[in-house]
Amino acid sequence: MKTIKSRWPAIIGAVVTLAMLAGLAHELLSSGLAGLDRATPRNPLFYIAFAALYFVPPLADYWIFRRLWHIPLGGLVALIKKRIANDVVMGYSGEAYFYAWARARAQLVAAPFGAVKDVSILSAIAGNAVTLAMIAVALPVGRELIPPEMMRYVYGSLAVIFGTSLPFLIFSRKVFSLPRRELWAIFGIHCLRLILGGFFLALAWALAMPSVAIGTWLFLSAGRMLFSRLPLLPNKDLLFANFAILMIGEDQALSELIAFTAAAVLLIHALLIVAFGIHHLLTRKPS
């Protein structure tokens, strides 16, 4: 029993890693590889912007936990795996993986649960805050592009977004364990992450389809984040695709670009997981 208790972080890490491999295999074999068969962007700057888009979230997390725990550069690998797990397994499975990683390294932090919890909650609150701000700007402009029957889902989702954030703000003293100064810094980093992610996505799309102004892509990037965070909205991906086609036209080229972007994210997930696995095997110390 003592051995199990001492090894449970490694067990959780192994379980989440296997789940990541299974999730990636399912996503790639079901639809991801088909997306890579679509028109491939020819501008090499697209791939630079896309790489920046991919690495903004884990780098922001690294900035946060470097600030809190002074984690080494190797912690960035665990944070990339955290992002992959959240994308292909289920929500917050990445947090479970990273918590297990931190618990296995007691020399870095003795009690990581409070910090991981606070960072995760603040990420959700920052996402909700940025979404509400985007709605305030975008809804008056793009309301005519949203089908009337969908507007009730939008308004209902707004209520859910606001309602899920409110309790954490009201009971912040009981919910959060980090000092207030750190909480504000983490919230600011999360907001910057979201803004940079939206910018690099718009830039990548603009480089792939230069015939469309980057301002339009910025609006669409904000719309993509908006649709992804509205909890009551059905068929989010399809609705966003229709919204984008109504704004830009060129339905085939746009559909292919969106499909390629999604497939490329999955491909990078898979390549990194394989690379991390090979590195672990080559550097593992014999028992």
From TrEMBL:
<keyword id="KW-0812">Transmembrane</keyword>
<feature type="transmembrane region" description="Helical">
    <location>
        <begin position="121"/>
        <end position="141"/>
    </location>
</feature>
<feature type="transmembrane region" description="Helical">
    <location>
        <begin position="253"/>
        <end position="278"/>
    </location>
</feature>
<keyword id="KW-0472">Membrane</keyword>
<keyword id="KW-1133">Transmembrane helix</keyword>
<feature type="transmembrane region" description="Helical">
    <location>
        <begin position="153"/>
        <end position="171"/>
    </location>
</feature>
<feature type="transmembrane region" description="Helical">
    <location>
        <begin position="183"/>
        <end position="208"/>
    </location>
</feature>
<protein>
    <recommendedName>
        <fullName>Flippase-like domain-containing protein</fullName>
    </recommendedName>
</protein>
<feature type="transmembrane region" description="Helical">
    <location>
        <begin position="45"/>
        <end position="65"/>
    </location>
</feature>
